[in-house]
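Now for one specimen:
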Amino acid sequence: MARYTGPAHKICRRDGRSCGKINCPFERKPYPPGQHGQSQNRRRKQSDYAVQLREKQRVKMRYGLLEKQFRKVFDHANKVSGVTGENLLVELESRLDNVVYRMGFAQTRRQSRQLVNHRHFEVNRHVVNIPSYRIKPGDEIAIRTKSKELVVVEVSLEAARTRRQLPEWLVLDEKNRIGRMVRSPIRADMDASINEQLIVELYSK
């Protein structure tokens, strides 16, 4: 499946926000990329449409989706009862590749997507190699027996111990490399910097 394979940190500078990593170049160059990057900081105020589009692009790139995939997720969230924006974020957070990342088995969503594609994970004891697979409360996510000693997983788990806490909607048995979704994520569990209402307004036009 098609995916973005370009420089990740270029996106940080284009969006004007750091990804939070120590080596993010936005910390050293807080302006857009390109030879006219610094002059772009003096551009006129962006239109409402530009702000909405930028927010959609930022969330789309964060979760590693292309436009067609992201629109499909939005359309499904729009059909489900509840607040569309929150439904959208729940759909994104419940993807298998994101859950693998949240559990600390991978250091980035790109890495987790590759691990899933390479058939290193099981969901409820069945091998799943579809990154977009929807995880539901009660589902068990485990690393396959032959993959439990992967160096990349060991390094990721070590980094996760100091980098962040496990979300409250997930539990992890690190020793046995098994995790479980105990409940669906709610808005309070997600990044407060995301303004999902802008995305809803964009797609509602």
Observations:
- Helices lie at 8-15, 48-62, 67-79, 84-93, 96-103, 109-117, 151-163, 196-203.
- Residues 95-184 form a domain with the Structural Genomics Hypothetical 15.5 Kd Protein In mrcA-pckA Intergenic Region; Chain A fold (CATH 3.10.290.10).
- The chain has two domains: 8-91+194-203, 95-184.
